[in-house]
Amino acid sequence: MIIDLDGRSSDSPFVESIYWARSIGGGSFTSIAATQWEMVITKQKGKVTLSLRGPETKASPSPIPEDAEFLGITFKHSIFMPSLPVYKLVDKEIHLPETGRNSFQLFGDTWEFPTCENAEVFVDRLIRKDLLAHDLVVDGILQGRPQDMSLRSIQRRFLHVTGLTYKTIQQIERARQALSLLQKGAPILDTAYQLGYFDQPHFTRSLKLYAGKTPVQILQANGQNDVVFLQDEIHSQSYD
Protein backbone atom coordinates (compact mmCIF):
# COMPACT_ATOMS: atom_id res chain seq x y z
CA MET A 1 0.00 0.00 0.00
CA ILE A 2 1.01 3.64 -0.50
CA ILE A 3 1.39 5.97 2.51
CA ASP A 4 2.79 9.48 3.07
CA LEU A 5 1.40 10.64 -0.26
CA ASP A 6 1.98 14.34 -0.90
CA GLY A 7 2.99 16.87 -3.53
CA ARG A 8 3.52 20.50 -4.36
CA SER A 9 3.35 22.88 -7.29
CA SER A 10 6.53 24.24 -8.83
CA ASP A 11 7.69 27.72 -9.73
CA SER A 12 9.66 26.33 -12.67
CA PRO A 13 8.09 27.19 -16.07
CA PHE A 14 9.02 23.66 -17.17
CA VAL A 15 7.57 21.68 -14.26
CA GLU A 16 3.89 21.06 -13.54
CA SER A 17 4.39 19.59 -10.08
CA ILE A 18 6.56 17.55 -7.71
CA TYR A 19 5.18 14.61 -5.75
CA TRP A 20 6.51 12.00 -3.35
CA ALA A 21 5.25 8.85 -1.66
CA ARG A 22 6.29 5.79 0.32
CA SER A 23 5.08 2.21 0.17
CA ILE A 24 4.81 -0.42 2.86
CA GLY A 25 4.56 -3.97 1.61
CA GLY A 26 3.58 -4.51 -1.99
CA GLY A 27 0.24 -4.52 -3.75
CA SER A 28 -1.10 -3.11 -6.97
CA PHE A 29 -2.90 -0.05 -8.27
CA THR A 30 -4.75 1.15 -11.33
CA SER A 31 -2.76 3.90 -12.98
CA ILE A 32 -5.13 6.57 -14.31
CA ALA A 33 -4.63 7.88 -17.86
CA ALA A 34 -2.30 10.89 -17.89
CA THR A 35 -1.30 13.39 -20.58
CA GLN A 36 2.12 14.42 -19.27
CA TRP A 37 5.45 12.65 -18.97
CA GLU A 38 7.51 12.53 -15.81
CA MET A 39 10.74 11.47 -14.18
CA VAL A 40 10.34 9.13 -11.22
CA ILE A 41 13.10 8.32 -8.71
CA THR A 42 12.54 5.06 -6.82
CA LYS A 43 14.57 4.07 -3.75
CA GLN A 44 14.25 0.45 -2.72
CA LYS A 45 16.51 -1.79 -0.63
CA GLY A 46 19.53 0.48 -1.06
CA LYS A 47 19.07 0.80 -4.82
CA VAL A 48 18.04 4.02 -6.57
CA THR A 49 16.48 4.07 -10.05
CA LEU A 50 15.41 6.98 -12.23
CA SER A 51 12.69 6.20 -14.75
CA LEU A 52 11.24 8.21 -17.62
CA ARG A 53 7.50 7.55 -17.68
CA GLY A 54 5.43 8.64 -20.64
CA PRO A 55 1.78 9.67 -20.98
CA GLU A 56 -0.77 6.92 -20.41
CA THR A 57 -3.67 6.61 -22.86
CA LYS A 58 -5.84 4.37 -20.66
CA ALA A 59 -6.17 3.13 -17.12
CA SER A 60 -4.01 0.07 -16.54
CA PRO A 61 -2.96 -2.17 -13.63
CA SER A 62 0.52 -1.75 -12.20
CA PRO A 63 2.39 -3.26 -9.23
CA ILE A 64 3.49 -1.24 -6.21
CA PRO A 65 7.18 -1.84 -5.43
CA GLU A 66 7.58 -3.21 -1.93
CA ASP A 67 8.92 -0.91 0.83
CA ALA A 68 10.07 1.88 -1.49
CA GLU A 69 10.23 5.67 -1.65
CA PHE A 70 9.22 7.64 -4.74
CA LEU A 71 9.88 11.15 -6.04
CA GLY A 72 8.15 12.32 -9.20
CA ILE A 73 8.77 15.35 -11.41
CA THR A 74 5.84 15.92 -13.77
CA PHE A 75 6.60 18.17 -16.75
CA LYS A 76 4.27 20.56 -18.53
CA HIS A 77 2.76 19.54 -21.86
CA SER A 78 4.99 21.84 -23.89
CA ILE A 79 8.23 20.45 -22.42
CA PHE A 80 10.02 17.62 -24.22
CA MET A 81 13.41 15.98 -24.66
CA PRO A 82 14.83 16.55 -28.17
CA SER A 83 16.96 13.40 -27.83
CA LEU A 84 14.01 11.24 -26.75
CA PRO A 85 10.68 12.45 -28.15
CA VAL A 86 7.73 11.82 -25.86
CA TYR A 87 5.89 9.75 -28.50
CA LYS A 88 8.46 7.02 -27.86
CA LEU A 89 7.41 6.94 -24.20
CA VAL A 90 3.62 6.72 -24.60
CA ASP A 91 2.31 3.91 -22.37
CA LYS A 92 5.92 2.99 -21.55
CA GLU A 93 8.71 3.76 -19.12
CA ILE A 94 12.48 3.62 -19.47
CA HIS A 95 14.80 2.90 -16.55
CA LEU A 96 18.10 4.76 -16.77
CA PRO A 97 21.38 2.97 -15.89
CA GLU A 98 23.01 3.71 -12.55
CA THR A 99 26.66 4.69 -12.30
CA GLY A 100 26.85 4.67 -8.50
CA ARG A 101 24.77 4.83 -5.35
CA ASN A 102 23.83 8.47 -5.94
CA SER A 103 24.15 8.92 -9.71
CA PHE A 104 22.78 7.76 -13.05
CA GLN A 105 23.54 8.05 -16.76
CA LEU A 106 21.49 10.30 -19.05
CA PHE A 107 22.50 10.88 -22.68
CA GLY A 108 26.17 10.22 -21.99
CA ASP A 109 26.48 12.37 -18.85
CA THR A 110 26.54 11.39 -15.18
CA TRP A 111 23.94 13.07 -12.97
CA GLU A 112 23.21 13.03 -9.25
CA PHE A 113 19.74 11.84 -8.33
CA PRO A 114 17.53 14.85 -7.54
CA THR A 115 15.69 15.31 -4.26
CA CYS A 116 12.41 17.01 -3.48
CA GLU A 117 14.34 20.06 -2.29
CA ASN A 118 16.57 20.46 -5.37
CA ALA A 119 14.27 19.14 -8.12
CA GLU A 120 14.03 22.54 -9.82
CA VAL A 121 17.83 22.95 -9.70
CA PHE A 122 18.14 19.55 -11.40
CA VAL A 123 15.65 20.61 -14.09
CA ASP A 124 17.54 23.89 -14.64
CA ARG A 125 20.72 21.88 -15.25
CA LEU A 126 18.88 19.78 -17.84
CA ILE A 127 17.76 22.97 -19.56
CA ARG A 128 21.27 24.45 -19.61
CA LYS A 129 22.51 21.20 -21.18
CA ASP A 130 19.78 21.51 -23.86
CA LEU A 131 18.32 18.18 -22.74
CA LEU A 132 14.90 19.80 -22.31
CA ALA A 133 13.12 22.08 -24.77
CA HIS A 134 10.02 24.27 -24.63
CA ASP A 135 7.59 24.26 -27.58
CA LEU A 136 5.88 27.65 -27.83
CA VAL A 137 3.27 26.47 -30.36
CA VAL A 138 1.93 23.71 -28.10
CA ASP A 139 2.10 26.05 -25.13
CA GLY A 140 0.17 28.74 -27.02
CA ILE A 141 -2.59 26.42 -28.19
CA LEU A 142 -3.12 24.96 -24.73
CA GLN A 143 -3.44 28.51 -23.39
CA GLY A 144 -5.97 29.42 -26.08
CA ARG A 145 -3.73 31.55 -28.26
CA PRO A 146 -4.36 31.10 -32.03
CA GLN A 147 -1.41 29.94 -34.13
CA ASP A 148 -0.68 30.73 -37.78
CA MET A 149 -0.30 27.08 -38.76
CA SER A 150 -2.37 24.48 -40.60
CA LEU A 151 -4.34 21.94 -38.57
CA ARG A 152 -2.15 19.15 -39.92
CA SER A 153 1.02 20.95 -38.85
CA ILE A 154 -0.42 21.54 -35.38
CA GLN A 155 -1.35 17.88 -35.03
CA ARG A 156 2.17 16.80 -36.03
CA ARG A 157 3.58 19.25 -33.52
CA PHE A 158 1.42 17.86 -30.72
CA LEU A 159 2.35 14.28 -31.53
CA HIS A 160 6.06 15.12 -31.54
CA VAL A 161 6.05 17.22 -28.37
CA THR A 162 3.42 15.50 -26.21
CA GLY A 163 3.14 12.06 -27.81
CA LEU A 164 -0.63 12.60 -28.06
CA THR A 165 -3.05 14.40 -30.31
CA TYR A 166 -4.71 17.55 -29.03
CA LYS A 167 -8.07 15.74 -29.04
CA THR A 168 -6.71 12.88 -26.93
CA ILE A 169 -5.31 15.35 -24.40
CA GLN A 170 -8.71 17.02 -24.18
CA GLN A 171 -10.51 13.69 -23.71
CA ILE A 172 -8.19 12.47 -20.97
CA GLU A 173 -8.16 15.79 -19.12
CA ARG A 174 -11.96 15.94 -19.27
CA ALA A 175 -12.20 12.43 -17.81
CA ARG A 176 -9.79 13.39 -15.02
CA GLN A 177 -11.89 16.46 -14.28
CA ALA A 178 -15.01 14.29 -14.18
CA LEU A 179 -13.28 11.92 -11.78
CA SER A 180 -12.43 14.86 -9.52
CA LEU A 181 -16.03 16.11 -9.51
CA LEU A 182 -17.43 12.68 -8.75
CA GLN A 183 -14.90 12.26 -5.95
CA LYS A 184 -16.27 15.47 -4.44
CA GLY A 185 -19.79 14.04 -4.55
CA ALA A 186 -21.16 15.65 -7.72
CA PRO A 187 -24.14 13.77 -9.25
CA ILE A 188 -23.38 11.70 -12.34
CA LEU A 189 -25.85 13.43 -14.66
CA ASP A 190 -24.78 16.90 -13.53
CA THR A 191 -21.12 16.02 -14.09
CA ALA A 192 -21.77 14.61 -17.56
CA TYR A 193 -23.76 17.71 -18.54
CA GLN A 194 -21.27 20.18 -17.06
CA LEU A 195 -18.35 18.65 -18.96
CA GLY A 196 -20.21 18.32 -22.26
CA TYR A 197 -20.50 14.54 -22.62
CA PHE A 198 -22.94 13.56 -25.38
CA ASP A 199 -24.90 11.14 -23.18
CA GLN A 200 -24.49 8.97 -20.10
CA PRO A 201 -23.26 5.85 -22.00
CA HIS A 202 -20.52 7.98 -23.59
CA PHE A 203 -19.64 9.33 -20.15
CA THR A 204 -19.49 5.83 -18.68
CA ARG A 205 -17.26 4.50 -21.48
CA SER A 206 -14.88 7.43 -21.12
CA LEU A 207 -14.48 7.02 -17.35
CA LYS A 208 -14.04 3.26 -17.67
CA LEU A 209 -11.32 3.73 -20.31
CA TYR A 210 -9.38 6.56 -18.69
CA ALA A 211 -10.07 6.07 -14.97
CA GLY A 212 -10.64 2.32 -14.82
CA LYS A 213 -14.04 2.69 -13.13
CA THR A 214 -17.55 3.61 -14.17
CA PRO A 215 -19.16 6.73 -12.66
CA VAL A 216 -21.30 4.54 -10.38
CA GLN A 217 -18.22 2.64 -9.14
CA ILE A 218 -16.42 5.93 -8.44
CA LEU A 219 -19.33 7.25 -6.37
CA GLN A 220 -19.60 3.95 -4.51
CA ALA A 221 -15.89 4.10 -3.66
CA ASN A 222 -16.07 7.73 -2.55
CA GLY A 223 -14.94 8.15 1.04
CA GLN A 224 -13.15 4.80 1.09
CA ASN A 225 -9.73 6.07 -0.08
CA ASP A 226 -10.10 3.95 -3.21
CA VAL A 227 -9.10 6.74 -5.55
CA VAL A 228 -6.13 8.86 -4.51
CA PHE A 229 -4.97 12.08 -6.19
CA LEU A 230 -1.30 12.97 -6.38
CA GLN A 231 -0.26 16.62 -6.59
CA ASP A 232 -3.66 18.15 -7.30
CA GLU A 233 -4.79 15.43 -9.71
CA ILE A 234 -1.61 15.59 -11.81
CA HIS A 235 -1.04 11.85 -11.62
CA SER A 236 -4.17 10.17 -10.21
CA GLN A 237 -4.12 6.55 -9.11
CA SER A 238 -6.82 4.13 -7.92
CA TYR A 239 -5.58 1.71 -5.30
CA ASP A 240 -6.87 -1.82 -4.79
Give keywords.
single chain, alpha+beta, Arc Repressor Mutant, subunit A, 4-stranded antiparallel beta sheet, 29% strand, disordered C terminus
Care to describe what's here?
The protein is α+β, with helices and mostly antiparallel strands. It is built from seven helices and 15 strands. The chain has helices at 119-128, 136-142, 151-162, 166-183, 188-194, 200-211, 215-221; strands at 2-9, 15-23, 28-31, 38-44, 47-53, 60-63, 68-75, 79-80, 93-95, 98-100, 103-106, 109-112, 133-134, 227-228, 237-239. It has a single domain (1-240), classed as Arc Repressor Mutant, subunit A. It is globular. It has a six-stranded antiparallel β-sheet with strand order 1-2-7-4-5-9, with helices on one face. A four-stranded antiparallel β-sheet has the order 6-3-15-14, with no helix packed on it. Strands 10-11-12 form a three-stranded antiparallel β-sheet, with no helix packed on it. Strand 1 (2-9) and strand 2 form a beta hairpin. The termini are close together.
Helix and strand topology:
Blueprint: E1 2-9, E2 15-23, E3 28-31, E4 38-44, E5 47-53, E6 60-63, E7 68-75, E8 79-80, E9 93-95, E10 98-100, E11 103-106, E12 109-112, H1 119-128, E13 133-134, H2 136-142, H3 151-162, H4 166-183, H5 188-194, H6 200-211, H7 215-221, E14 227-228, E15 237-239
Antiparallel strand pairs: 1-2, 2-7, 3-6, 3-15, 4-5, 4-7, 5-9, 8-13, 10-11, 11-12, 14-15
